[in-house]
Amino acid sequence: MARPRTPLGTFGQIRFESKENGQIRAVARFRDNDGRLRKVSATADTQKAAENKLKTILAVRAEAAIGQGELTADSSFRQLVEVWLADLDLDGVISSRTRTLYEWNMRNLVLPALENYALREISVRMIDQLVKTLKATKSYSSAKQARTVLSLAFGLAVRYDAMRSNPVRDIARLRKPASQAMALRIEQVEAIRSAVSSWRRDPGHSGPPPDGQLEQIIEVMLGTSARIGEVLAIRKCDVNVTVTPATVRICGTIISEKGTPTHRQDHPKTAKSTRVVAVPGFAAEALRVRLVATSGADAEHLLFFTRNGTPFTTNNVRRRLGTALSAAGIEGVTPHAFRRTVATVLDRASGPELAAEMLGHTSSKITLQHYIEPDEAVNPVTADILESLAPRRKDDG
Fold it and tell me: Which residues form the signal peptide (predicted)?
C-alpha cells in the first residue's frame, strides 16, 4: 500500500547526527513547493539548539511554500488589495460601477484597519471583530459591503496559495436589523407634487424658474416604477405614445464614475430587468411634454437632460428634489420612495407577483422584503364568516 505524500510545506521526523567537531546536526526531509522532498539541516552545539535552529529554517520555507508568485503568506494586506484590484480589471466580469464601489469600500472601510498586517497574521477573530465594529460604528450596510470585498480578496489569496483558508467563511453571521418598507400615501404624493411645482416660482424669487423636468421625472417614476437612473436614461425611441396605454421601454441607466463623464449605460441595473411597461395617463402626459421638447433631436436623444444637453446625474436630481421638498417642510423623501409606492399600490390591487414584474425583479421575494409596505389589515371577509359564532336569541329555539 502506497504511503501518503507529505503535504507541501511540511516536514518529516527530525533526526540528529553527531559531527566530528562535537556539534549536533538536526536533519529533516521537507516537501518543497515543487512537490519534491529535500533534506534540510541545521548545526549547533547542543541537540536542543540544533532542533530550534532547524525549525526556524523550516518555518521560513513553509511560509514560502504556501504562497508563490505575486502573493505569499508574508505579503501585506495592502499588497493583496492591489493584486485583487488588478485581477478584477483583468477578469472584466463586473461592471465598472461595481468595480469602483468595491475599491471605495476596500480603501475606506477595510484597508485602514488591516493594511500593515501580513496575510499569515490575519485571523478569523480579527476579521470577525472588524465586521462587528463597522456594524456598530457605521451601519449594517457598511459591514455587509466590507464583508463582501474581504471575502473576494481573501478568496484570491487562497487561490494564490498565500492563505490556507478564507477567514471570512467562519466569522459570525451578519444579521440585518429589522426594517420595514414605507410607501407614500396619496396625500403625501399630492403634497410632493405641489411642493415641486411651486418651487422657485413665487413672485419674489429672482432668476429663471425651473424648466419643469423635475415634475415630469416624478410622474414618470410613479408611472413606471423605474429607478431614478433608469428614468434619466429613457430616450425618445424608448417611448411609444401612439398606442393606448402608452408604453416605455426601460433598457438603460445613467452612470457617473470617477474620471469619466456621466453617460448612459445600455442596460438597467441588471441586464435581466430590461422591460416594456404600459404607463398611466399622467405619466404618458409627462412623456408627451418631453417628446415635444426634443422634437428636433434624433431618436437616441435622452428625454431628460441639462441645459448643456448632457445627461443629468442621479445625485443632481436627488439634490434638487430634496431642496424643493425642504423648502415646503417635507423631509425624508427620496426617489426610491416612489418605487416603493408603486410596488405597494400594485401589491394591494393584484399581489406581489405583478409588483415584482413591474419593478423588473426576477422574484417577488425581493419585492416583498424591500419594496412593499406590509399590510396590517386582515381581509374583512372574516367578519362575515365569523358571524356564525354570534350568540343566538332566545326565541331562536
Answer: none
* Phi, psi of 235, rounded to the nearest 5 degrees: -105, 170
pLDDT at 35 over 80: no
Matching residue, cell 402608452? 246
Q: Where are the beta strands (DSSP E) in the chain?
A: 15-18, 24-31, 37-44, 239-240, 247-250, 253-255, 263-265, 275-278
186-201+209-359: CATH topology is hpI Integrase; Chain A (1.10.443)
Cα(352)–Cα(211) distance, rounded to whole angstroms?
A: 36
Tell me if 319 sits within 8 A of 272, measured CB to CB: no
The full DSSP string for 141-177 is HHHHHHHHHHHHHHHHHHHTTSSSS-GGGGSPP-PPP
Q: Quick one: which H or E segment has residue 28?
A: strand 24-31
Alpha-carbon torsion, ordered 142, 146, 149, 153, to 10 deg = 170
Name the nearest CA neighbour of 67 among 150, 164, 155, 152: 164
Class of domain 77-170: mainly alpha
Mean pLDDT confidence for 266-276: 85
Beta partners for residue 276, in sequence order: 249
Task: Give the separation between CA 94 and CA 264, rounded to whole angstroms.
Answer: 17
Q: Which three cell numbers stand for residue 38?
A: 529535500
How many C-alpha atoms does 163 have within 13 Å on its Cβ side? 24
Sorted by where each begins, the domain ranges of the chain are: 15-66, 77-170, 186-201+209-359
What order of strands is seen across the sheet that includes strand 275-278? 239-240, 247-250, 275-278
* Number of C-beta neighbours around residue 109 at 10 A: 20
Contact (CB, 8 A) for 327 and 321: no
Residue 295 has which C-alpha cell? 422634437
- pLDDT digit string (tens) for 281-309? 999 999 999 999 999 999 999 999 999 99
